[in-house]
Amino acid sequence: MIHDFVILCAAGMLVSVFLMVGQKALVVAIRLYGVQSLLLGAVGIALGLAQHRPHLLVTASLTIVLKAVLIPWFLLRVIDRVGIRREIEPYVNVPASLLLCLGLTVVGYRVSLGMAGASQGIAHQVVGVALSMVLIGLFLMVTRRKAITQIIALLTVENAVFLVAVGATSGMPLVVELGISFDVILAVLVLGVLVHRIVDRFESMDTSRLSNLRG
Amino acid sequence: MNLLLATLAAPLATAGLGALPGPRRPKEVVLVSGLATTFALAIATAGRFLAGETPVAFDGALRVDGLSALVLVLTAFVGLLSGLYAVGYLERNERAGFVSAKRRTELLALVPAYLAALLLVAVSNNLGILWIAVEATTLASVFLVAFHNRDTSLEAAWKFLVLGSVGLAFALLGTVLLFASGQGVLGEEMSALDWTRLIAHASALHPFSVKLAVVFLMIGYGTKAGLAPMHTWKPDAYREAPSPAGVLMAVGMMNCSVYAILRVHLVSKAVLGPEFSERLLLGLGLASVLVATPFILIQWNLKRLLAYSSIEHVGIMAIGFGLGGETAVLGALLHMTYHTFAKPVAFFSAGTLAQLHRSSDFEEIGGGTLGRTPVASGLLLLATLMVTGSPPFGLFWSEMTILKAGFFGPQLAVVAVFLAALVLLFCGFFYQVGRLTLGPDTKPKERAVLPERLDLAMGTTLVAAAVAVVSAFYLPDSLVALVRAAVRVVVSA
Fold first, then answer.
1. More confident residue, A74 or B443
2. A176/B132 Cβ within 8 A
3. B 118-157 residues with CB below 8 A of A?
4. Which residues neighbour B156 within 8 Å (Cβ) at sequence distance 6 or greater?
5. How many domains does chain B have?
């Protein structure tokens, strides 16, 4: 029962990544990231309640507050300020991207089969979703041009890692988890500051303009 | 108070004081004395280790063994040099009106903060702490890369942060997978991520999870070390970062990421046997040396040239560790030590040259700098001799040690390619620097050159050069003992 719920949420996270690949509006991508983080938090709370692990509840609520609310709010504010709404034509068009991502999902699942028989029964399924999300996140990073999309792709990869931490282990030690969360928040703030500076200088946050340095 | 914690607290306190507003002189005194204290404390900590103790803190999450002690001392040494040079650098730039008071505060706070994060990496015994510390180094250094706020600095900072973050996300995934592999054996406490415990319980870990984890961790920390093909942020970041920060990146960051890679390597060795991670290291190392070769030959910028030289050196170290065996590991660790002495000379003299010519592009500096800025150019030539591994300097001996180990080992083809690349790199680097310093005077007429002065930055460069030259002929016994202890850590596990 609890395992079904976890797998359902993990599948939901995978769907959210595919939806990100499938559309170009930045606002929608940010909201999808929020939903994805909410699902991650739900996995944590469900496992925390079922297995009586209070520290999982702490980290799951932290995830919801920070990643489902604060970070999306911050990113929405950034795009509001710089006034850019849509991703321009990506390097690879949307239908082709979706097909490629399907292939990446197969790769992710194939690799995760080796995890079968690790500590918990659902480990390899969760790892399969997570590895697929990592690969698709990287794919988004290299094929999209807007700085914000790259940040969201990075955060998606990071969510995938946390999914492994919650689903395949019984949650990272609290100190480590808090340290990681703190670093991630700081990284998002720094990235936001950089986006501002880039928009100020280049009057665009199109990262393909950042191409003076070669050789 | 715990000596180890004091070593970490000293640069952190220096950073805090550096961030406060205030007149210039006292803040500079605070910076230099803070970093000198840090260096002294690092030596004292290493001394404790040599006296037979194992300094620990936080229930063993921080721990100093031979490898940690070596990296700790080397990094703190570079931190002190960087601080001294930073003061001179700011003085020069402020005289020319390039740097505002706000930027000065930024540099005075971020340099020690960066060092504090690096030192935390060097003493971590816990994969979680290690990750947090490496991420902290990235965040501390990104505004140093963006320091000059030019178009190119923002581009470099963006690449640096995005690539670094992807690498760190990989490393985090590896950390989680390694944690997962020990579930049920090591428990869920913080200490389940300690290497000492992971290695002690190696046979009980889930091998496939460990294998997956090692790949992700090596790619992740390899990105921070600048191993090819994850090296692309390095040339941009080196060109844009001010020299005091550049040297911390080129030496401190490199040593610390090599340290992280080695810890992963040791866990992998204990669980999967030596071949798996040695192959990986050998592949990454060889790729780095081979990637650096063509870019050094066609280089158009002095600081980018140094970046490719860095990629080469981290590749050499990876090859040394990848060959395995006591001799090769000794060579690689000696390489790290000598590189720590030689690289600052190259960075500082190149930085001075660039500052006086107001550009680091070869075309804008023009050939024949020896006639215009003899001291800086002479020091750059000396540094070139050292970093290319010419005899009698240290890097020649460490490279020879690695080659010797390689030629007596089974990986003959790899070593042959490696040797060929080394020869090409040597010629390429000399060609570039020779053209710049010794060639005919081709300075563009419209560009003015500032006169050389014996200021603090130049003084620091001279001291660094003296240390590097002396180190070729004489290493203190205690440093040799540290290198030997580090070799034992890497080989024995």
1. A74
2. yes
3. 126, 128-129, 131-132, 135-136, 138-139, 142-143, 146, 149, 151-152, 154-157
4. A213, B145, B146, B233, B236, B237, B239, B240, B241
5. 1
Q: Is the model's pLDDT at B492 over the cut of 70?
A: yes
Instruction: Report CB contact under 8 Å: A164, B176.
Output: yes
What is the DSSP code (8-state) at residue B228?
T
CA-derived radius of gyration, chain B: 21
Q: Are B240 and B150 in contact (CB under 8 A)?
A: yes
The pLDDT confidence band at residue B186, using thresholds 50, 70 and 90, is: confident
Rg (CA), chain A: 18
Q: Which residue has the tokens 């060889």?
A: B286
Using an 8 Å Cβ cutoff, are B117 and B275 in contact?
Answer: no
Residue B343 tokens read as 């690289």
Residues from chain A that touch B304, judged by Cβ atoms under 8 A, are: 215
Residue B154 neighbours by CB under 8 Å, 6+ apart: A194, A197, A198, A201, A202, A210, B146
By C-alpha distance, the chain B residue nearest A138 is B166
Q: What is the mean pLDDT of residues B340-348?
A: 96
Q: How far apart are CA B271 and CA A128, in angstroms?
A: 23
Helix residue ranges per DSSP H, chain A:
2-22, 26-50, 54-63, 71-82, 94-112, 123-143, 147-167, 174-202
Closest residue to B139, CB basis, from A130, A158, A186? A186
Candidate from B113-122, B333-342, B348-357 with smallest mean pLDDT: B348-357
Cβ-Cβ contacts under 8 Å, B184 against chain A: 119
* B179 → closest Cβ in A169, A211, A213: A169
> Exposed (0-12), middle (13-18) or buried (19+): which is B23, by Cβ within 10 Å?
exposed
B173–A191 CB contact, under 8 Å = no
Mean pLDDT along residues A143-152? 87
Q: Which of A150, A170, A201 sits opposite B154 (nearest CB)?
A: A201
DSSP assignment of B107-163 equals HHHHHHHHHHHHHHHHHB-BHHHHHHHHHHHHHHHHHHHTTT--HHHHHHHHHHHHH
**Which residue is closest to A148 within chain B, CA to CA?**
B162
Determine the residue among A107, A129, A175 to mutate to test chain B binding: the one whose Cβ has the most chain B Cβ atoms within 10 Å.
A175
Residue B62, beta-bridge partner list: B57, B124
Give residue-wise pLDDT tens across range A36-67: 999 999 999 988 898 888 888 988 998 999 99
B300-325: pLDDT as tens digits? 999 999 999 999 999 999 999 999 88
CA-to-CA distance for B384 and B377, rounded, in angstroms?
A: 10
> In Å, how far is B10's CA from the nearest CA of chain A?
21
Question: Mean pLDDT across the stretch B445-456?
Answer: 86
**Residue A171: its H or E element:** none
Start-to-end CA distance of chain B, whole Å, equals 31
Neighbours of B207 (CB within 10 A): 15
Residue B393: other Cβ atoms inside 10 A: 23
Contact present, A168 and A123 (Cβ < 8 Å): yes
Sign of CA dihedral B449, B451, B452, B454: negative
The answer to whether the Cβ–Cβ distance between A212 and B161 falls below 8 Å is no
Q: What is the pLDDT of residues A95-118, one digit of tens each?
A: 999 999 999 999 998 888 877 655
Give the domain extent around B21. Answer: 3-492
Average pLDDT over residues B365-390: 92
ipTM: 0.90
Q: Can you tell me the distance from the alpha carbon of A17 to that of A108, in angstroms, rounded to the nearest whole number?
A: 14
Cα-flanking dihedrals φ and ψ of residue B361, to 5°? -80, 135
Closest CA to B183 of A115, A190, A1: A115
Q: Is the model's pLDDT at A89 over the cut of 80?
A: no
The first and second tokens of residue B7, run together, are 């070593």
